[in-house]
Amino acid sequence: MRLLPLVAGSLLTTLAFSLHAHNHDHHGHNGHDHDHAHEHGDSLGAHQHGVANLNLVLEGSALAIELESPADNLVGFEYLPSTDADKAKVREAMASLRQADALFQFPAAAGCSLDQVELQSPLFSAVEHSHKHDHGHAHTHKHDHDNAHNDIEAHYHFTCTNVAALNQIELKLFESFPRTEKLLLQAITPAGQQGGELSPAQNLIRF
Asked: How many CB atoms lie within 10 A of CB 17?
């Protein structure tokens, strides 16, 4: 991992607040999975194919990870799906994103378990909440998003029973989503703040 200067932006701050709130409400959401239809068309600061943001906060035994990526990296396109084939690709990406153990590998001694996954994207909204429209309306809706740069956000909350053993995280995400070539890391842990670039060849986050 090549270290970069860390700019602790609003997204990481928001993630920290989210983790703090989750700690107070942990028992009410164990194992719960959410899919929201927020219209995050351009949430990334710089929309670049092949590049995604990975934000991480470790507080006590709670670990929060947030992935922000252009939809192209995870699905292969960014327009709203209209064909059955496109919708199938979106559903496949959603299923893969929910498999946190296939994306993030923790030391076994750390005892990390997934509590919650939350997925957000206009593409997910289009698949899950599609309604039958008349032909004219459907055509106009698709046309408006033909050139949209839609993003995908995935939020993960874990609990680790032995944080002292959590000295690294191996990212398997590159294997699940090979169109993702680089992750820009921002992290807050008890040891401080860190940032860096991760790639398929350098896929370890070390604390």
From this structure: 11
